[in-house]
From TrEMBL:
Lineage: superkingdom: Bacteria
PROSITE patterns, sorted: ABC_TRANSPORTER_2
Keywords assigned: ATP-binding, Nucleotide-binding, Transport
Name of the protein: ABC transporter ATP-binding protein
InterPro entries noted in UniProt: AAA+_ATPase, ABC_AA/LPS_Transport, ABC_transporter-like_ATP-bd, BCA_ABC_TP_C, P-loop_NTPase
Residues annotated as domain ABC transporter: 16-247
Highest classification ranks of the organism: Bacteria, Pseudomonadati, Thermodesulfobacteriota, Desulfobacteria, Desulfobacterales
Any single GO CC term annotated in Swiss-Prot or TrEMBL for this entry: plasma membrane
MF annotations from Gene Ontology: ATP binding; ATP hydrolysis activity
Length: 253
């Protein structure tokens, strides 16, 4: 079903509402009166050309910059809160280039995430659960700097999950991965959503990943919405083909 992200707040069970949000860097309008709603339990995709404002949207949700408009998470306004406070309320994110502490072991890295999310309290049983979920029991004492790219990506998601988020925001998780790794990561992301019950927002350039994985897809350009709705319908939208996908994609799909 094709809807508009502007219908913010009309979903059955919203967990995140971005409501008329604008962010300017000097004269540059990076995010322009953008509204969208993410439903609890969803995998929600965001795509658009380079410089469209996708990462800035993540930075606004996670509290890195002040902005105009309002963001509501799980029934409360989070606009203006500090990043660590937003993280502790239950929004966690990963980065396109895996950010790990190279000299820390797998187990310690997951523990750091757990301590941070629980504001210093530590739950070793939950750390154990995450290590099992990652299938990293055999390499728990290995420094994360020795992991391959796929391992680092999963470890970064595991450390984020150790904070016990309600929403996990992934920034181009497939970047630099081959076809087999993409398949593996897609299955892993599905398990985070279904087995752990975590709502997921994913920025990605691989449209096949978005059409297979997401339930709702938002396309933005120059900071504003182009369209939002069922991912297959969105990729057939002439405005999306014109501004982002190009005719070659439309002919090949
Ligand atoms: N801290 C900043 N200061 C000034 N301009 C910024 C800042 N962060 C982003 N921008 C600008 O805002 C616009 C949106 O950038 P953003 O990184 O959000 O786009 P994006 O869609 O994530 O792009 P990409 O797909 O290339 O990662 C760009 O023109 C960028 O140069």
């Amino acid at each position: 079903m094709m809807t508009s992200g502007k219908d913010a707040g009309h979903g059955a069970n919203p967990i995140l509402k971005v409501d008329h949000v604008t962010k300017k860097f000097g004269e540059l309008v990076a995010v322009n009166d953008l509204s969208f709603t993410v439903e609890k339990g969803q995998i929600f995709g965001i795509a658009g050309p380079n410089g469209a404002g996708k990462s800035t949207v993540y930075n606004l949700i996670t509290g890195f910059y002040p902005f105009d408009g309002r963001i509501e998470f799980d029934g409360r306004t989070i606009s203006g809160l500090q990043p660590h406070r937003i993280a502790q309320l239950g929004i966690s994110r990963t980065f396109q280039i895996p950010q790990t502490f190279p000299s820390l072991t797998v187990e310690k890295s997951i523990s750091v995430g757990n301590r941070f999310g629980a504001q210093g309290r530590f739950d070793p049983a939950y750390v154990e659960e995450i290590i099992r979920f990652l299938d990293m029991q055999a390499i728990r004492h290995q420094p994360t700097g020795q992991l391959n790219l796929l391992g680092k990506k999963k470890l970064m998601m595991g450390a984020a999950l150790a904070t016990r988020p309600k929403i996990l925001m992934l920034d181009e998780p497939m970047a630099g991965s081959n076809a087999n790794e993409i398949k593996d990561l897609m299955a892993f992301i599905r398990r985070i959503n279904t087995d752990m019950g975590v709502t997921i927002i994913i920025i990605e350039h691989f449209m096949k990943v978005l059409t297979e994985l997401t339930e709702t897809l938002l396309i933005i350009e120059t900071g504003g919405e182009i369209c939002c709705g069922d991912p297959v319908a969105v990729t057939c939208d002439p405005r999306v083909i014109e501004c982002y996908l190009g005719d070659a994609y439309a002919e090949g799909s």
